[in-house]
Amino acid sequence: MAVPKKKVSRSKQGMRRSADALSAPTYIEDKNTGELRRPHHVDLKTGMYNGRQVLAPKTAE
Q1: Angle, CA 26 vertex, CA 23 and CA 27 arms, to 5°
Q2: Helix (H, G, I), strand (E, B) or coil at 16
Q3: pLDDT at position 13, please?
Q4: If we measure between CA atoms, which residue out of 55, 35, 37 comes closest to residue 47?
Q5: Secondary structure of residue 32 in the 3-state scheme
Q6: What does the alpha-carbon distance between residue 26 and residue 31 come to, in Å, rounded to a whole number?
Q7: 23-39: string of b/e by CB count within 10 Å (b at 16+)?
Q8: Mean pLDDT taken over the chain
Q9: Is the pTM for the entire model greater than 0.90?
């Protein structure tokens, strides 16, 4: 059975657990449509990214 050689200090334990905290995802308001979208992601409805058209706009079917 694996047994730790030394006790893990509170500092090291805290450093390991610092990544466990979850944060809410950020959303920004799109300048053109006014809808919320994730930053640095393509707007799937319009197909725009960084002020240019990169995908064909999604049409209602």
Answers
A1: 155
A2: helix
A3: 95
A4: 55
A5: coil
A6: 16
A7: eeeeeeeeeeeeeebee
A8: 89
A9: no
- What is the predicted pLDDT for the residue at 18? 92
The Cβ of residue 48 has, within 10 Å, a number of other Cβ atoms equal to 19
One-letter amino acid at 17 equals R
What are the counts of helices (DSSP H) followed by strands (DSSP E) for the chain?
Answer: 1, 4
CA atoms within 13 A on the CB side of 19: 4
Dihedral (CA of 34, 31, 33, 39) sign: negative
Tokens read off for 38: 């994730």
Decide if pLDDT at 59 tops 80.
Answer: no
Domain range annotation of the chain:
25-61
3-state SS assignment for residue 17: helix
Q: Check if the beta carbon of residue 30 is closer than 8 Å to that of residue 43.
A: yes
